[in-house]
Amino acid sequence: MSETKTKVGIVGATGYTGVELLRLLAHHPQVSVAAITSRQEAGKHIADYFPSLRGVYDLTFQAPDDAQLDQCDVVFFATPNGVAMKEAPALLAQGIKVIDLSADYRIDDITTWQHYYKMEHASEEWVAKAVYGLSEWKHADIAQAQLIANPGCYPTCVGLPLLALLQANALNSSSHIIADCKSGVSGAGRKAEIGTLFSEAGDNFKAYGVSGHRHLPEIRQTIAAFNPDIAKKFTFVPHLTPLIRGMHATIYVELNEGIDALQVLQEAYQDSLFVDVMPNGSLPETRSVRGANICRITAYRAPETENNQWIILSVIDNLVKGAAGQAVQNMNIMLGLPENTALNCMPLLP
Amino acid sequence: MSETKTKVGIVGATGYTGVELLRLLAHHPQVSVAAITSRQEAGKHIADYFPSLRGVYDLTFQAPDDAQLDQCDVVFFATPNGVAMKEAPALLAQGIKVIDLSADYRIDDITTWQHYYKMEHASEEWVAKAVYGLSEWKHADIAQAQLIANPGCYPTCVGLPLLALLQANALNSSSHIIADCKSGVSGAGRKAEIGTLFSEAGDNFKAYGVSGHRHLPEIRQTIAAFNPDIAKKFTFVPHLTPLIRGMHATIYVELNEGIDALQVLQEAYQDSLFVDVMPNGSLPETRSVRGANICRITAYRAPETENNQWIILSVIDNLVKGAAGQAVQNMNIMLGLPENTALNCMPLLP
Amino acid sequence: MSETKTKVGIVGATGYTGVELLRLLAHHPQVSVAAITSRQEAGKHIADYFPSLRGVYDLTFQAPDDAQLDQCDVVFFATPNGVAMKEAPALLAQGIKVIDLSADYRIDDITTWQHYYKMEHASEEWVAKAVYGLSEWKHADIAQAQLIANPGCYPTCVGLPLLALLQANALNSSSHIIADCKSGVSGAGRKAEIGTLFSEAGDNFKAYGVSGHRHLPEIRQTIAAFNPDIAKKFTFVPHLTPLIRGMHATIYVELNEGIDALQVLQEAYQDSLFVDVMPNGSLPETRSVRGANICRITAYRAPETENNQWIILSVIDNLVKGAAGQAVQNMNIMLGLPENTALNCMPLLP
Amino acid sequence: MSETKTKVGIVGATGYTGVELLRLLAHHPQVSVAAITSRQEAGKHIADYFPSLRGVYDLTFQAPDDAQLDQCDVVFFATPNGVAMKEAPALLAQGIKVIDLSADYRIDDITTWQHYYKMEHASEEWVAKAVYGLSEWKHADIAQAQLIANPGCYPTCVGLPLLALLQANALNSSSHIIADCKSGVSGAGRKAEIGTLFSEAGDNFKAYGVSGHRHLPEIRQTIAAFNPDIAKKFTFVPHLTPLIRGMHATIYVELNEGIDALQVLQEAYQDSLFVDVMPNGSLPETRSVRGANICRITAYRAPETENNQWIILSVIDNLVKGAAGQAVQNMNIMLGLPENTALNCMPLLP
């Protein structure tokens, strides 16, 4: 472990985004993971906890207080909502860079956040300073940021295509946007709950959060930054689908006359490393990005309709571009490294 | 096997709708399966082909010509598209009742059918006489029919909630209807194809048929019977999801001011044996109808939108209410039997 | 609900064996479910808990103390280990018949039970009176019993073929028996645990309990009743496989010279309603019994070996013949009803 | 594409081992893929065939005759059995190195091969020259070889632990070895067949090839090289389990008195890059090696038995260490490169 490497800490490394950060950082040439914390698993060697990491890391989980996170250059919070807002400020005060994978710093409006997350916010002042880390759209801000609010998986999968259309002024502002989204079960996290047991979520499909999922205000805020009126005409329904990783958004929009959604998307992302706009007739499938920091998108003119109705298809791996991968991408930007360092892992197909 | 039982034949009994008909009819008290046909498996005992039916049926597959289908009272066609239109007319001419689970007789407009199914239609005269067998909406016609065009799975899952709203004049006719549908893989049939292999369709999610699925004109025709203008503002996107059985439709509609979708649905189906409108806040899941001839539906007012936007959720087992179960339901109606005879099988959960 | 029907109570009806009992009993013509208990869900209507049962039962969970179980004729315990041994004796004392689906009364030797189940036994006297309910082998005893220790899933799947071989004196007593077993995840029950989450148990295969699973002494006891020496030469390894229901045992035995395992099995079960010995060359698959109270078995002479080595394949649905189905079968025997009453449900394939 | 890189060709690159080779070689620093062939897909760009490889390769499938494979330094055959034996000899005659992932060159005894593979062998002379590429055991031979017979997945998963025990003379030669193996469905290849459809192989478990799988003589040959007598007392039963990738072998052996299997395994593989012997009490699971070129092994003394009976657990990813990964490992050895070049990909968990 070279002295000159950037020292990284991971708070809450026992969850799925935590182990995914560890997978991605394992061969990062400029970074070394110096500390992993877990209150519950303190003292346990990582090889005994995640056998997939045997022989790769020689690390032991530490209680947060023992972990000397203040010796790190960058700290990731891969914690449940409500932890980072309490624990990050002390690190930030010491000049440490923080990337929060939870939702604590994502919503500018504190009242909205408190309504959706059912708790008091503990560090409002840092909400204002945090940069929302949708990497492709906030590159310059991220490069300067000390605190990144890493986006949610749904907001990433929906936001990437939608922002390109919004920027191009393509959306018919009098019509309604529908985002019908489907997520793999790992999106629910590594928590002991009946609803995500194999025997409950397997061979089963259902909607959830229909009356107001927490990612609704997050996506709405993203849209509103471009067009507050359109943000009010937005419906989002998430569904749970029996796959481990993967997220698919099917977005229904009416575009202004003459606009071709696919062309807008291709122009927006023609130089992108991580957003792949697929040609006419393609069908992005979740496995084509399994394990990779890629968003694949395409668009179809809705068949046999008179108005300029379009169907946008967008897929990501919810744990990579929807969480840990985008977090590493943001870290690379913050550190001035090539954006794709350690992010060239190929999709696992089949 | 009592002499007085209705004799049933099944053409193409080696597919998933065929074996499902056999499962459902196994304990039907008024019906006996007299003949099963398969060109390819002729001579093979059913117990060697479907071990799930061992000890239940003593039947051998016969070539269609050897099967003496003209000795049957009712013949089901569980065949690929294009077979029933050639083989059913001879049986119909002898007064035999026919229930076609394929698409041959579903579309009134022959040009549209030929466009979508890429073949010449072989018995146009019977298209006009066929009754579209959406049981809950065509009960009287079905009771009198000789030929039933058994509906497709998507048209059943989407049509059942939509027809209730159309009948109540609930839909805002200036807005667009979106039906985002997800199907289990058994909907693709029991065909040797790479796309539906376990290693392709497993742990994977994708849209398909986006530029115009065959069930689009079928649903459009169903809507148009109530309101041709609304039928033109309809978008349908099917998706393949890694479950064996099950279909989920998420339907987005704008309703006329003051109308409550859930109330409309509850009134429409309050006496229904097979359509279960679930209370406010429910989340219909596909496994809640696995193996059962039930459609479960509920509705949500879209959160935080100004116009009267609604989200309708509808689930069926694509092989039961979406195919073989509805076929048996239609047979019961045609024979004047209680509609739920042999259809009380409970959902298998988990 | 007819006055003359047998009144049934189910203690612990929120688990998988509980809901399976409810599915099977829904259309039982001589039985009515009068009470379901759950400490945690008391007051909740069953339709809100198990949507698959909507419209079928009008029952509400009750706290055990409120449930008037003493008004029932038969009480099923579908509870975690350690509950029935405390709560059943009071019911038994009032003459009520009890069928315990847990392990409390399965092991004759209290020391062994306490070693494997890590608790004190609370009603040793009833262990001696309980009948081990492997229906096919204890028919006469079950008919007279007041308390049934319903067998475990592995012991049923392994025991059914093995007992036939033991009874025929077929096993070479100097050689070792291997039972390599694979179970669907529902066998672990409906408990909030990380290990059986979809994202942990899905797309994954592993052995567990290798150093001594609780079903080892249960199977050993079953073997020992025929031949204590052979019971000492028995190895059992269970594995977790990503299917919801289903259990497959692959059993390796050396038989005495000249003995044909398949012939022994066929003779033993030729008149059996629920054990299906499949012909030479068959490959029993778990889905062929999905949802049904059937054990399918076949046997192969091990290829290219000199000694009389055999491979026995046995499949059940762990929740039906391995739990709730066998419990209903035992209830039918106890009540003098036809053994297959309410147990003719067909396997769900696909 | 540097001139100094080794040029690689892949024959039959449309299958699962083909796409896996492409995934692994994508970032190999000393190798460039120069040609991929497919008779059926000739002319199709790889990005249109495998979307997971979009942006990574700019290659088009060519008919084998057009592909100028003779310009390559190394050619992989990822073809069905029977192709390499016909097409490889011409390349071998020109001095090109060949790694055959099919079974054509694995079995020394031509009669046995012809019996199991049901065809005439077309290049017997090369069978004698081929090196069986179980990398950990044939390192020196592989380094000198021109033709590698890359081992089957089962023979790798079973052979790695078994060879360590054989080398240590640990096996009791009078007792029988059982290898009960479970494979993910991708092991069956990417072929349009009904038996491996999602709706057939999903939520299902079964044995297959019980009367004599093709990998039986391959494993037997591997054992016989150490001890021909023990090779005759070997039983192998493969099973199909509903996971995409992954293979688990459970091996039952009786060891000579006093021998500890785990210790033998640990000593044999203490310096191994790709064989990980896990400590006492571990439970190797297939996902811990998903996508990685690793075999994880552990061993348990069978509980409550008198003789020195052991249970060995071994897992690999059937497409990586069981096929394409081991092929790349062998190529690295042949080229004198570090054995793990391009093989450090981390397991994907979850």
TrEMBL record, chains A, B, C, D:
Its EC number is 1.2.1.38. Pathway: Amino-acid biosynthesis; L-arginine biosynthesis; N(2)-acetyl-L-ornithine from L-glutamate: step 3/4. The keyword Phosphoprotein does not apply. It catalyses: N-acetyl-L-glutamate 5-semialdehyde + phosphate + NADP(+) = N-acetyl-L-glutamyl 5-phosphate + NADPH + H(+). CDD domains: AGPR_1_C (cd23934), AGPR_1_N (cd17895). The active site is at C153. Gene3D superfamilies: Dihydrodipicolinate Reductase, domain 2 (3.30.360.10), NAD(P)-binding Rossmann-like Domain (3.40.50.720). InterPro entries: AGPR, AGPR_dimerisation_dom, AGPR_type-1, NAD(P)-bd_dom_sf, Semialdehyde_DH_NAD-bd. One of its GO terms (molecular function) is N-acetyl-gamma-glutamyl-phosphate reductase activity. It is an enzyme of class 1 (oxidoreductase). Pfam families: Semialdhyde_dh, Semialdhyde_dhC_1. Residues 7-145 form the Semialdehyde dehydrogenase NAD-binding domain. Keywords: Amino-acid biosynthesis, Arginine biosynthesis, Cytoplasm, NADP, Oxidoreductase. It is found in: Cytoplasm. Catalyzes the NADPH-dependent reduction of N-acetyl-5-glutamyl phosphate to yield N-acetyl-L-glutamate 5-semialdehyde. Belongs to the NAGSA dehydrogenase family. Type 1 subfamily. This is N-acetyl-gamma-glutamyl-phosphate reductase. It comes from Vitreoscilla stercoraria. The gene is argC.
